[in-house]
Each structure stands twice: as structure tokens, then as C-alpha cells.
Design goal:
single chain; 73 residues; alpha+beta; 6-stranded antiparallel β-sheet
């Protein structure tokens, strides 16, 4: 199992599962990140937070803690 936090810059990955509960999971889903969606990792800040991604044509910034809850392949 790897998470979005582990993905390298420039990688195209597919979301396989969302972990987390309640409001945190809802926030991730509200960004358009759902099972089966493709994510492109654009940039990772020097300390790993935030992680900038492109999802469904939108550029988003994710916290490292949120990225750990998104399983990818």
C-alpha cells in the first residue's frame, strides 16, 4: 500500500481507497478526490507540506496529513 504522500513529483497515480472518518473524508471528497480518479503530483514543498496536485483539471494543495489518507497505485 502506498499513499499520495509517498508519490513522487511528476507521477500520475490512481486513487484506490480513501481512509479517514467524517469531516476529514468529506473534505477530501469535496475536492473531487474519489476512488478511481487520476491524480498528477505537480510539486511537493521542501518539508513535504503542502503537496500540490492536479485532479480533474483543478490545481489543489493538500496537507501532508490528508495525503496520508489517500491510497494510490
Amino acid at each position: 500500500m502506498s499513499t499520495l504522500k509517498d508519490a513522487k513529483v511528476g507521477a500520475h497515480v490512481t486513487v484506490t481507497k480513501l481512509n479517514g472518518e467524517g469531516a476529514v473524508k468529506r473534505r477530501i471528497m469535496d475536492m473531487g478526490i474519489t476512488k478511481g480518479v487520476d491524480v498528477y503530483v505537480r510539486k511537493v514543498a521542501p518539508l513535504g507540506d503542502p503537496i500540490e496536485v492536479t485532479v480533474r483539471g483543478y490545481e489543489l494543495s493538500l496537507r501532508k496529513a490528508d495525503a496520508e489518507m489517500i491510497e494510490v497505485q
